[in-house]
Backbone:
């Protein structure tokens, strides 16, 4: 086949039927746009629901039917046999104590969770409870006190008998919010820290009724259902430099990008220093810089001049000389670049408190799906710049931070957080996700609700 | 209106520019789609889908190639998707067994319409590879990547397509004489 035939084949035109038209194409396009928007909304809503669901599932479960009744030994010492107290289901508003008056409490009562072994037993039992495996009360009355305590359901509580109903055990294993008494040898409670660290983190916790030797107030039962919630106010900043002045590249950009992120979140204590929560955030992301666009340009210079030629014996002649030169030169275009992106997002937050030396440190991670509220200017990176159109676009950010937690009052602690913050958004015209990683500093104020 | 103005207008969602782009290229691209697809309806669907993709992705077009070449490529991809949806199978043969006919003068006597008809008569697998390699100018590697087959298969399909075309042509000539 000849080239001509190939070209003819390629250039051939055919007429389509009436079911195909420009309007139909535009209709199809609109439909696809709507479907895409719906997909994003449903994905965001799904993510939000998953977050909320996880938040709810990890919370206290007062109405659990598993191990609703367990026998608790309400003895004040390990070896003394005593009668059992049957703790009722959490939805019941009172606890039944069958303790005999003879089983008296002394301030030297043994710690509820006095060793790691007991703690691990508690954890195993709480795992079983969480998985819905029925846990039977141990029959061995001489079993260690801690193990028997471990069979307690979420809010089951054993009272030491006697004239004063002193608290022997606070929250059950499931809530992971075990409370101890002040005079106990060691404590496993709220954030899974030893008392000194916990005091740093949450001085209020130690002032809580559960840690007090006072009588249990009548209305104190309500506190058993009170989730351990914390409010967190945070502000983070960060910057990212885009520097590229490599002469081998056509486009060079020198610019700095900054971001500021403000958020409020409610965090739920999941025990062992783990917190998770949801919030609302507002962020701004700006960039200022310059660009240099270098292009190799070739141009031709034509120089024309006349030369008078005089040859003896011949008439004088004028010759036109055309001199052509080709030049190659770099042409440079420079300009400034500025852009601004504002957005709102829903942070799905996770925090972990860790005792390090004599201080408490906090690891925080979060994901923030959201929407832009404003996009303007020319976005740039090291290798490109492009104008931003003002449109609502999906954004997705992530943050990782680690820093010390410092108490400032009985209720509030400040967390200083050097952080890495990844910001991304979908550029409206190209529909390509653009992302930047910022390093910076942040501060969080955390208070118990 | 130049190509650049047209593209910029389409990016700005100027309906007039979008309509010009449609009227300028739709028939050419439909002819292309017809070469790949089984029937007119499928080709029309592929054409509309490819135009939706073209309008949506025009901001990504950086004028590194000719606009028409890019649009043809988008349309070819739309057609390939249709072919793949039908789960057309491609038989692989050894590269060494391929004996490409070097000079086929018989084709030169054919008109475009006849050629199109002949190409249309080719089996599905052969047809796509023949169109992509011989008419669109794709390399076998590109064809392999686009269609999700290996390079050897692409070569063998092309070889078979040419042989099939030649035999059809011989029959045609035999019938005429």
Residues:
């Amino acid at each position: 086949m000849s080239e001509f035939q190939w070209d003819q084949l390629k250039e051939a035109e055919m007429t389509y039927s009436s079911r195909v038209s420009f309007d139909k194409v535009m209709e199809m396009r609109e439909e696809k746009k709507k479907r895409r928007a719906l997909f994003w909304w449903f994905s965001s809503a799904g993510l939000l629901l998953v977050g909320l669901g996880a938040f709810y599932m990890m919370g206290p479960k007062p109405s659990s039917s598993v191990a609703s009744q367990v026998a608790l030994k309400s003895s004040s010492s390990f070896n003394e046999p005593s009668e059992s107290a049957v703790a009722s289901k959490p939805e019941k508003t009172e606890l039944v104590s069958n303790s005999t008056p003879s089983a008296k409490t002394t301030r030297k009562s043994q710690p509820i969770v006095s060793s790691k072994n007991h703690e691990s037993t508690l954890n195993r039992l709480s795992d079983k409870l969480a998985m819905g495996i029925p846990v039977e009360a141990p029959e061995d009355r001489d079993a260690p006190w801690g193990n028997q305590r471990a069979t307690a359901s979420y809010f089951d509580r054993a009272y030491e008998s006697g004239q004063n109903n002193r608290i022997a055990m606070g929250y059950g294993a499931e809530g992971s919010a075990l409370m101890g008494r002040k005079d106990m040898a060691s404590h496993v409670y709220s954030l899974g820290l030893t008392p000194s660290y916990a005091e740093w983190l949450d001085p209020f916790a130690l002032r809580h009724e559960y840690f007090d030797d006072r009588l249990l107030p009548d209305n104190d039962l309500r506190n058993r259902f009170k989730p351990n919630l914390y409010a967190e106010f945070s502000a983070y900043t960060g910057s990212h430099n885009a520097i590229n002045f490599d002469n081998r590249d056509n486009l060079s950009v020198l610019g700095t990008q900054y971001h500021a992120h403000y958020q409020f979140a409610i965090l739920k204590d999941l025990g062992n220093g783990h917190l998770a929560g949801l919030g609302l955030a507002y962020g701004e992301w700006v960039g200022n810089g310059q660009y240099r666009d270098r292009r190799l340009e070739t141009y031709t210079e034509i120089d024309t001049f006349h030369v008078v030629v005089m040859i003896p014996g011949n008439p004088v002649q004028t010759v036109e000389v055309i001199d052509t030169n080709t030049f190659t030169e770099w042409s440079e275009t420079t300009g400034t670049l500025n852009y601004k992106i504002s957005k709102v997002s829903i942070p799905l937050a996770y925090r972990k408190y860790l005792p390090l030396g004599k201080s408490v440190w906090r690891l925080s991670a979060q994901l923030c799906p959201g929407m832009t509220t404003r996009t303007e200017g020319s976005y740039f990176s090291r290798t490109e710049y492009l104008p931003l159109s003002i449109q609502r676009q999906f954004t997705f950010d992530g943050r990782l931070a680690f820093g010390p937690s410092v108490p400032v009052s009985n209720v509030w602690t400040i967390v200083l957080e050097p952080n890495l913050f990844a910001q991304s958004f979908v550029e409206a015209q190209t529909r390509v996700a653009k992302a930047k990683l910022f390093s910076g500093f942040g501060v969080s104020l955390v208070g118990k609700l | 209106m130049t190509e650049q103005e047209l593209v910029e207008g389409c990016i700005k969602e100027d309906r007039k520019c979008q309509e010009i782009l449609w009227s300028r290229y739709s028939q050419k691209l439909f002819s292309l789609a017809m070469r790949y697809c089984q029937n007119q309806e499928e080709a029309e669907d592929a054409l509309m889908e490819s135009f939706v993709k073209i309008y949506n992705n025009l901001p990504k077009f950086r004028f590194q190639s000719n606009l028409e070449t890019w649009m043809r490529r988008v349309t070819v991809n739309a057609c390939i998707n249709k072919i793949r949806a039908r789960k057309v199978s491609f038989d692989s043969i050894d590269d060494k067994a391929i004996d490409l006919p070097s000079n086929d003068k018989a084709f030169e006597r054919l008109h475009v319409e006849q050629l199109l008809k002949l190409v249309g008569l080719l089996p599905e697998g052969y047809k796509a590879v023949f169109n992509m390699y011989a008419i669109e100018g794709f390399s076998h590697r590109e064809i392999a990547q686009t269609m999700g087959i290996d390079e050897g298969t692409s070569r063998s399909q092309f070889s078979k397509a040419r042989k099939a075309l030649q035999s059809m042509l011989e029959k045609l000539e035999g019938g005429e004489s």
Q: What stands out?
A: The domain at 95-176 of chain B is CATH 1.10.10.10 (Arc Repressor Mutant, subunit A). Chain B has two domains: 3-85, 95-176.
